[in-house]
Design goal:
Shape: globular
Radius of gyration: 22 Å
Bound molecules: iron/sulfur cluster
Mean pLDDT: 86
Amino acid sequence: MTKASANKATKASPKMRRKAAVRVPKISAPAPKVGFVSLGCPKALVDSERIITQLRSQGYQIAPDYAGADVVVVNTCGFLDSAKKESLDAIGEAMAANGQVIVTGCFGVEEDRIREAHPGVLAVTGPHQYEQVIKAVHGAVPPLHDPYVDLVPPEGLRLTPRHYAYLKISEGCNHRCAFCIIPSLRGDLASRPANHVMTEAERLVKAGVKELLVISQDTSAYGLDLKYAESPWKGQPLKARFLDLCASLGELGAWVRLHYVYPYPHVDDVIPLMAEGKILPYLDIPFQHASPTILKAMRRPAAQEKTAERIRRWRDICPDLAIRSTFIVGFPGETEEDFTFLLQWLKEAKISRAGCFKYEPVEGAAANALDGAIPEELKEERWHRFMAAQKEVSAELLSAKVGREIDVLIDEVDEEGALGRSKWDAPEIDGSVFLNGETGVKPGDIIQAKVLHADDYDVWAERTTQSIQ
Ligand code: SF4
């Protein structure tokens, strides 16, 4: 993980983030209302969904604004200092507008700092402490006993649109990257049994989900802590192992997209599944750098793998493979040579999509003790050079798609046309497919379209068939 998620946090709307996307069934009696603010990465979003699902099952309603809420829960992000500041601001906003505020999430481990800034908060809990959050909500506004309120749909309540969903397969991480404090916040790797993941995935697909986004801190390490234990699924034993889980998810008939994959040798095994169309030809690998010296200083997992060569081999098997990644520039000790190595590697590896972050020290991270801090102006300069190089790679890869017929999953439709994504685009972080004038489709439809034109990050296409999946 996951500077990308820090990026996503900054993309959220400032007021009552994500609230508009929560679908809430009508209930028969007035119920206590909870406001919800969800900051941070997809993993935090899944935590929010679990808390909301539990609250709804107990008869609470989700308030659309602060004024209508009896209590507000703020699920915070504590990954970077900028994310912590955003979390403190969000708590302050909820305190000013409502006054009854419960804080949870990654930044919740810094209770003293939160209470110093906002002494009136009702409770502070850490990440995935669902029960404590629910208890704090009960303390602030007790649940209503009404037999008609238990109307939670079997797939739970989600904060993403109906047609895609994040599927968290494990928590925590066994690595200790120098710039990251996630393991101290979320602990070591703890995988969910394979049949639990599959049950949730199947429910989501039955409820209309067309795309499953597999997330965790370290997706390809899935099952290591469980010693790949088997659990029964559809009458057969299913191993808690990356390849086995990917193969089973690929049988559900939905798009399956893999995020936060480290390039351990066994990742090679899932590439044929992509070539066969069982799972999407997409790997989100947070490389963070390419220079061996910097990767070593960062203490990155799988840093010793010869990744550019491996990527070439993967593309021999699955030519359509898209690779998304995140990178950090200006890490302590990064020389001009390290940086130009990164730029060359980026072009050679043909990284389709990339986020780039200027290194920022995180309180409590081991990297803070490293010498060789890079001046801010130099970080800025490298960031611009990185983005320019990446733009060229992206534009070249997208121009090669012009004239091809592709599958498009529709995300939005209005009177001017539709907006969707190809198999090479994850929601919110990658590019889009614009279908100008296409109004005969709806979100969640999968159609075929011919790519007419491409720019640096997006493509424009027109529908080629009437059939809709
Ligand atoms: S320690 Fe490394 S691998 Fe683990 S969550 Fe942090 S950045 Fe990701």
